[in-house]
Amino acid sequence: MDTTVAPASEAELIASLPSDFRWGVATSAYQIEGAYQEDGRGVSIWDTYCRTPGMVEGGENGDVACDHYHRMPQDVALIKSLGVDVYRFSVAWPRIQADGTGPANEKGLAFYDRLVDELLHAGVDPWVTLYHWDLPQALEDKGGWPERDTAYRFADYAMLVFDRLRDRVRTWTTLNEPWCSAMLGYYEGRQAPGRQNFADAMDAVHHLLLGHGLAAQRMRAAATQPIELGITLNMGTAMAATESLADQEAARRADGLGARIYLDPLLRGQYPGDIMDDLSVRGIKMPVVDGDLAIISEPIDVLGVNYYSSHRFSGVDAAGRTEDEDGNPISVNVPLGRPVTAMDWEIVPEGFTELLVRLSQEYPGTAMVITENGAAFDDEADQSGYVADHDRTSYLSSHIAAVAAARQQGADVRGYFAWSLMDNFEWSYGYAKRFGLVHVDYETQVRTPKQSALWYRDTVRRARGH
């Protein structure tokens, strides 16, 4: 099988990564677990969203997904076969608390107990993400993340999981991609719960960050051994289409609402002033209570960075307008003319380097790990299930090299986790998009490592000098 060799320049960059660099793969609970009505699991906003006509491609859902709940030991063996040292997974909140409140569901905790033990037995470190978008529907019925109380419910839930696993798990991520939860879930309506209210989305931003801070404080106080606490943000590099003021402003706003509205309160204890001014013009004020920003800026040990693409923006639409019908400034995505993935996302590895270097310069002292990076392509499996995914292999090579290039420019990046371990339920796209290093036949649940998996395995081995 052709496992593809990285171009010389990329191979040299990858070879420069240090021996203690961490290599991993990542997944999320709703996308792989299935078993949606088993062992006391409650209903999540994604269960509801998937059953809302027109929301998910093909009317598909995560009821079975990759059946990981029943196939976990073989999946851990698959992870071990890739030679990685870390597996980042998320805990399904509705498995722990069916309605988002009250005592822990023992059967739910027991599953993650078994998963952690299986990983440790395989020599793989567990990296727990506490929230990857699957809010219990009962909490959404009470207002969801736009309500302050949800932040406190999240901290309570976090402690149920932390208390159970803290003796064996060192690294903890509170939230995965709060931008997606807030903006796609409450403003654009393209993800669960499917609401479309900008003010609600801004309230959600603050309460997601508050939930992170509350959980981080309580976990830190309860820790009985050294732990690494962090949060994961999805970001890219926002570029202006031209040097015009309108385009520069469009790029500033995109960066502000996409990155700085999270980074600044987390790492500086304040929201970015320019974005607060923009919101004020729209009659919106963040629901900050005295003391909130001190909680949100609880020191973290690692910033998770998820990167898929970068974008170029214009403040003028095709009709020449700079404002929409509501008087809000226009922001238009202007393609860079690059090759795209199956998600129609442009492939911009140099934007990855630029992002990481910028983060290290603007937020000095921040240790980073790439908690997700990968690509969906239109895979074609042969009769054995094998996929010769040269495109994905090339994507991974160029982006790992981009991380190495950022390190050479001073960025403190300590690890790289490929997204995703295996093909899975891709949210609003159903099963149409495949990000996996491992091919999944959804009818038989047979897993087959793709060319990219073998390349990644060999890359990890070389990095360790094996």
Automatic annotation (TrEMBL):
Its EC number is 3.2.1.21. The keyword Hydrolase applies. It catalyses: Hydrolysis of terminal, non-reducing beta-D-glucosyl residues with release of beta-D-glucose. Pfam families: Glyco_hydro_1. Keywords: Carbohydrate metabolism, Cellulose degradation, Glycosidase, Hydrolase, Polysaccharide degradation. The keyword Disulfide bond does not apply. GO terms for cellular component: cytosol. GO terms for biological process: cellulose catabolic process. It is an enzyme of class 3 (hydrolase). The active site is at E177 (proton donor), E372 (nucleophile). Substrate binds at Q31, H132, N176, Y308, W419, E426, W427. GO terms for molecular function: beta-glucosidase activity. It comes from the Bacteria. Belongs to the glycosyl hydrolase 1 family. This is Beta-glucosidase. It comes from Actinophytocola algeriensis. The lineage of its organism: Bacteria, Bacillati, Actinomycetota, Actinomycetes, Pseudonocardiales.
